[in-house]
Each structure stands twice: as C-alpha cells, then as structure tokens.
Amino acid sequence: MRSHTLHCAFAWTLALCLPVSCLAETVITRADLNIPLYSARDLVAPALAQAPPRQADSPPVEVPPVLSPQVETLQPLPPMAPIYTVPAAQIEKQGSQSLADVLRGMPGFAVNDVGPAADIHTGTYYRGSSINQSTFLLNGRPYGSNISTYHGATDLNTLPVESIEKVELSSGASSTLYGTEGFGGVVNVITKKGKGPPQFKAGAEWGNYSQANYQASFSGSTEQLSYRVGYQSFLTDNRYYVPEASINRGADGLLFNGDTYRNSYSGNFTFDIDPRNAISLDVTKILSRRGLLYFGFPGSCSPTLALQCDRLDHDGLNLGLGSRHQLGAGEDSVLTVNLGYNQDYFNTYGPTGVRFNRTGTLDTSLLSARVEHDWKSAPNLQLRYGLDATNNQLNSDTLSTLPNRAPFNEVENRAVFNGALFALASWSVAPSAALELGVRQTVNSRFNSYTNPSAGFRWALSPGVALRASWVLAQRNPGLDQLYVYDTVHGWLPNDQLVPETGSAYTAGFDVRFSDALEGKFTYFGSGLNNRLAVVTGQWQNVGAVATNGLEAAVRWQMAPQWSSFLNYTYTDARILTGPESGLQLGFVPYSVGQAGVGYDNGGWQANAQITYGSGSRRAFFNFDSTSTDFSPPWASLDLKARIPINPNLAITAYVENLLDIPYERVNRTYTPGLLYRIGLQTSF
Predict the structure, then answer these.
(1) How far apart are the first and last CA of the chain?
(2) How many CB atoms lie within 10 A of CB 37?
(3) What residues does the TonB-dependent receptor-like beta-barrel domain cover (predicted)?
(4) Which of 113, 210, 380, 665 is a plausible cystine mate for 428, CB 3.0–4.6 Å?
(5) What share of residues in the chain are helix, strand, coil (percent, to 5)?
(6) Distance between CA atoms of 199 and 647, rounded to whole angstroms?
(7) Is 574 in contact with 546 (CB distance < 8 Å)?
C-alpha cells in the first residue's frame, strides 16, 4: 500500500504556511473569479463588524441564504462549520456542464463520475463519505431517492446546469435541519428565478469526440410574478484512444459504449401575493441515455464479451410547491412550507453473451412535506424548528435469461415512511462567542425511532480571526434496493437484515480575513462510521467500521478589481478499521485533491486558468496484474477558459481542458482522452 505520510506532512505544512508565506509565492489562483466562492460574513463572528469596510472598488461579497427554498429568510448567526457558495456567474465562467462539474471545483470533493469515461460505479465522495452518505437538496427539498446502488444513486450529471442560481455546501448542523445522512455534508441547489424585462438567452458549444451542448432560457418578471423556463441538451460519443489496461477498450484501441445523451427542462414561477407572502412553483425534468462502463473489465461488444454493452436509461421529474410568510409585523419571524414530488426511473439492460440478456428496472417516487419556522426571538437568539416527512415508494422488476440468475427474477413493491421533528437554536452568548445546539427526532417505518443531536461553537479571537467547531450524530439507513431488490446486472443479492450505518461527524477550524481582499477557511474534519454497507460474496452486508480524518484549506484572494484567485486543498485519510481490508484507505477515495486558479474579468472579457490535482486512489477490485492495495498514479490537469464579447448581445466562448495533453487514469482503470476543447457562442436579447 502506498504510504501517505508525505501527503499528510504536506497538508499540515500547507495549513500552517498558507496564510502568510505560501500564498505570496503562488500564482495558482481560481479560474472564475471576481465573485467570491464564499462570503466574508461566513468567515467572521459578529465582532468583525468593527473591521474596516471593504474598499469601494472591490466587488461585493455574497451572503449565502439560509438553506430554504426559493426565498431569502432571516440571516443566521455566523456558522459553526464552513459554508461554501458557488453562484451562477461563477458556474458559467468555469464552463460547468453539469452539477458534478460544479462540485469538483469545491473543497473536499473527489468526483470520479464526470466527464469522458465517467464510470458511475466509482462514485462521488465528499470528505471521504460517499454520495449516499450526504444529503442533496433542490431548493431545500430532497433531490434523488432512497435508492443506493450504482444505478440509483443521485445522478449529478443530469440536473440542468443552466438553471442553477447557486450551489451551497454546508455541514455540521445542516444535518439536523435536513436529514441524518450527513456524514459528509449537505448540498443545496437553488434554481434561477426570472428578473426584470423579458429576456431570451441561448448558447451552443461544440467540441472533439462529437461533443455538443445547447442551452436556452426565457425569463422575466412583472410587479408580482417572476417566471423562467430553460432547456439544455448535451451529447458526446467519447470515442477516443485508451491504454490496453483500460475499461471498455475495443479491438481498435478506442473506448466503446461510453456515449452520453441527456435532455433537461426546467421552470420556475414565483407569485408575490403581497409584500409579506409569496408562493412558488418549480419543476425539473430530465431524460438521460448512456452506455455503462465497467471498471476493470477487458473486452468489447463482441458476442462473447457483450457484458460491456449494458445501457442505462434514466428519466427523472422533480416538482416543488413552496410558500413563504412573514409573521407578525416585523421581519424577525418567517414561516416556510414546502411540498415536493421526486420521481426517478432507472432501467439497466444489456446482453450477457450470445444468447442471454438481463434487465433491471427501479422506479421510485418520493413525496415530501416540510414546515419550518425561522424566528429571531431575541437579538442574540435565533430558533429554527419544524417538521418534515417523506414517503418513498419503490417498484422494481428484475429479469435475467441467464440460467443461474433466472431463479432470482422478481417484482418488488416496497415503501418506507420517514418523519422528523427538528430544532436548532443559535445563541450569541457573548459579543465574540456563539453557541449552537440542535436535535432531530426521526420516526422511520422500517427502522423505528432515533435521535440525532448536534452542537457547535464559534469564538472571534479578533476582528479578523474566528475559531469554530461542530459535531453531529448521523445515521444513514439502507436503501430499499439494498434491502429487497436483486441486482441482475452484477448478481448482487439483497439483504433484509441490514442495519443502518451510524456514527458521528465533526469539524474544527478557523476563519481568517487577512484583508478585505484576502480570506481563508482552514478546517480539520473527521467522522466515525459503524456498520458500513458493502457487497461481500455477492450480497449486501454490514461489514464494519471506518474512521476518517482530514484537513481542508480554502483561500480566496481578490488581487485587483479585475483579477481574482482561489486555492483549495483537501487531505482525506478514510481508514477501514475492521475486516479483511483493515488498515487500508477506502477504495476510490484519494488522499489529496486540490484546485487552484487565476481569473480576469473586465467589460465582458474573461480569461481563466485552473489546475486540478488528484493524488490517485486505491483501485480496490477488478484489477489487472495488481492487488487490492494497488493505487492509481497521481495526476494533474491544466484548463483554460475564455469569453470574448463581439457586441453587448453576442460572445464567443472557448475551453481547453488538459492543456498538456497527458492522458491520466482518473480512477480504477478509467482514462481521460488527453486534450479536450470546446468552442461556443452565447447570445441574449
């Protein structure tokens, strides 16, 4: 197993020296960005109000809203755990084509299933926790379903990126408010609303490997109504050369069955009943068709090795109806009500050889309801409390003509209800100190009742430095498919005796404002997880414990009005504590990930450069001439992005990814193609 001592030493060195000397020697800054990655308000305690004001020629900073759908509520007391925000302008500048693209530029994320040769088996991880151990929200309500296996996990590539207003990443007490699964964190995606006179915007991009991306939207507002509808279409065939050890390598040396096609539609309508009451409706519809890549398997779409030709169809629908009400005569009491419907249809199908075929269908629907009261009951006390409920229905149909799998063919209809009461209190116990206590009491129709508390603390040592800490007790329940559904693709058996994954997650760190233009967040994070879920000898099992510890640094530097930069680095030691893999790093979780870049923005002209680094991860299984301790090699990618205005309504965009044209193994035998390019046009009128 690769030693990670050097990674750890580097992480501590970075955390200690970055505020003063390392940054001064670095030209590695963010590709986007004259809009902050996160707000200065998040970085400091109330005592920082005494700090000098921001200079007039500096760009404004954005204050992330409370994680509530569609509408701004009361501004909370400073957070006890770091909050990161990526606004729409930044998403556009970095050239993101999916939500997964957005997340891989944020601190702590290792996104393996995005871009060419994206293998959905290898997943997305945040601070060492899988996508199923984090909570994903769309406008404050659940996005995704109770499905946990590879073909049912939240698909981050399908949400229409052109409709995203901002993405908020939080941890700590967010799990108290939005669910107990938050070993990792909570990701809330807020969609755009219409503003001002009617406006039509459109864009088109074309790139190598038959890549095409089309976007269009129409939006506007009247005195009481805002409206916005959007459309996005993306396709690529991903036919490029890959090494002999790669997955899905054909006889011609090219990747096969890696094509992707998706259409997405979105709409948002908000009606202001009066100045104190509003209702909103938003809808997202996706249609996705893609080939499936199987990490580590050789072969081709020949009759004898047709395993590699499986396809995945995914249709999704997310509807939300929300209302916001300011109670009383003041601004210190806000009631929000949200109703949601989420439907996901996954269908996996393909041949297993000359004569045999298989199909696996998972059709889920999720109904959700939430009522929350946000009340600043005193100048130094803020309360957030309420209730939420979800009902998840799974209909599955598995069919295989392979003789040894046919006996497991089945139709399942299962449902699970989950209801919770939650409360979070934040006190300013002193001018420079704040305390946060929360609790979530959950009733689950499958796993009975359980309690999850949380706590946090923040102390401003000076006008420019604040310490913070958070802790939360977490629980992630097995998915309905893991409990009841036979996986005909892999031959994995369900297990209705599974118990929840339980444990805790915690952070400690400090936020620093070195100047009005230079801010940083430095965090130690950790988690302990028991009853980890994994497949053993072809069946889902609770296999043991994992302890995760790591360091995270996020720095933003506005070097000049037109020049901005960023630097993110995360070190993650996700160590298996029990079982045959005891002492090993979790598979697919790299020890180190980092991003850095510099950006220029002036008068519509934009130029951005970004470096992305991954230390490599444990391949874990399905290896060639290697063992379970084998790691993929480290890699780095340099990306350039530019926008050139032709006139106020038309611009040319250009993106070059992996400028050095060095193919690398992203994770477990999935290889990038080397240099990628896109050329596009943007227009608005």
Answers:
(1) 57
(2) 24
(3) 310-659
(4) 380
(5) 10, 50, 40
(6) 16
(7) yes
Average pLDDT over residues 502-522: 95
Say what the pTM is. 0.86
Dist CA 17 CA 6 (whole Å): 16
What's the gap between Cα 293 and its chain centre? 21
Instruction: Give the lowest-confidence range in 258-272, 385-399, 519-533, 617-631.
Output: 617-631
DSSP label at 670? E
pLDDT at 30: 27
Q: What is the pLDDT, as a whole number, of residue 34?
A: 27
> Which residue carries 């088109």 as its tokens?
204
| pLDDT tens-place string over residues 645-672 | 999 999 999 999 999 999 998 888 888 8
- Please check the confidence at residue 498 and state whether its pLDDT lies above 50: yes
Q: How far apart are CA 473 and CA 453, in angstroms?
A: 6
pLDDT at 67 over 80: no
Alpha-carbon distance 50 to 460, whole Å? 12
Q: What is the mean pLDDT of residues 536-546?
A: 92
**C-alpha separations of 159 from 189, 215, 217, 502, 629 in Å:** 10, 13, 15, 29, 35
* Residue 364 near residue 165, CB atoms below 8 Å: no
**CB burial readout 549-564, b (16+ within 10 A) else e:** bbbbbbbbbbeeeebb
Burial of 334 from C-beta contacts in 10 A (0-12 / 13-18 / 19+): buried
388: left (phi over 0), alpha (psi -120 to 50) or beta: beta
Cα 17 to Cα 202: distance, rounded to the nearest angstrom: 45
> Tokens for 221?
């507002």
Structure tokens at 171: 């941890």
Residue type, position 679, single letter:
I
DSSP state of 18: I
pLDDT for 580 equals: 84
Gyration radius from the chain CA atoms: 24
The bridge status of strand 225-236 relative to strand 164-170 is unpaired
In 3D space, the residue among 684, 661, 664 whose CA is nearest the CA of residue 674 turns out to be 661
With contact defined as beta carbons under 8 Å apart, do 166 and 187 qualify? no
pLDDT of residue 305: 52
Residues near 196 by Cβ (< 8 Å), separated by ≥ 6? Answer: 220, 221
Is 595 in contact with 611 (CB distance < 8 Å)? yes
Q: What are phi and psi of 42, to 5 degrees?
A: -70, -20
